[in-house]
Design goal:
There is one protein chain. With 234 residues, this protein is an alpha/beta fold. Helices cover 42% and strands 11% of the residues. It has a domain of 161 residues: 3-Layer(aba) Sandwich (Uracil-DNA Glycosylase, subunit E), CATH 3.40.470.10. 43% of the residues are buried.
Length: 234
């Protein structure tokens, strides 16, 4: 974490929330400790009611990985399989991410993976048999941001990988755009000495054809290789 530390990050979250009036958030559910561990945070997050997404989710899906991980990957929100299993990136997008990490020279088991939003937002399909992903809105992302700030503060990573627009807007603000910011070191953010933006692995799965899918996957691997190089240079 940069010089501000966890306390100033959470104070910033609180101040920005207050400036928006009565908007709810996760602050009230954070552990009442000056430096909570990841285990403390995960236990507290299980009872979070900082927004309404918990009402239709199976449970909170907190981040996962070593407490000393030097690289953190941040996605959007849990998907259907993540919600059912209670673990991040265990569905089809997680399989794509694991393969891309391996090709980039990074071990999934040595990374910490999490999401900007900790509950699965979904809508039923026309027959009511499947749960379809629904993009979290700005209020929901802001409400969950204190958990992400606290996770990163506890980890103190050297590199943060931003997987997609929602993660980027949570970490770097509403002006974040993947296309404009990927492929380079976003150095000295408040979160870590290095940050790398790339697409969410689910974008590979949504590609319209094999050629587009291959191109998007290659771009994901290329961005992850940059993250690996930055980590190796530390």
């Amino acid at each position: 974490m940069r010089e501000s530390g966890k306390e100033s990050l959470l104070a910033k979250n609180h101040a920005s929330s207050g400036a928006r009036g009565e908007e709810r958030g996760a602050e009230a559910f954070l552990p009442p400790k000056p430096e909570p561990t990841l285990a403390d945070l995960k236990e507290a997050a299980a009872g979070c009611r900082g927004c309404d997404l918990y009402k239709n989710a199976t449970g909170t899906v907190f981040g996962e990985g070593p407490a000393r991980a030097r690289i953190v990957l941040v996605g959007e929100q849990p998907g259907d399989q993540e919600d059912r299993q209670g673990r991040p990136f265990v569905g089809p997008a997680g399989e794509v991410l694991a393969r891309a990490l391996a090709e980039a020279g990074l071990e999934r088991a040595e990374t910490y993976v999490t999401n900007a939003v900790k509950h699965f937002k979904w809508t039923p399909d026309s027959r009511g048999k499947r749960r379809l992903h629904a993009k979290p809105n700005g209020g929901e992302v802001r409400a969950c941001r204190p958990w992400l700030a606290a996770e990163i503060a506890a980890l103190k990573p050297r590199v943060v990988v931003i997987l997609g627009a929602t993660a980027g807007q949570s970490l770097l603000g509403s002006a974040f755009r993947v296309g404009a910011m990927r492929g380079r070191d976003l150095a000295d953010t408040e979160w870590a000495p290095h940050a790398v933006a790339t697409i969410h692995p689910s974008a590979v799965l949504r590609a319209p054809d094999d050629a587009a899918r291959a191109e998007m996957y290659e771009g994901l691997v290329r961005d992850l290789r940059l993250a690996a190089e930055l980590l190796g240079a530390e």
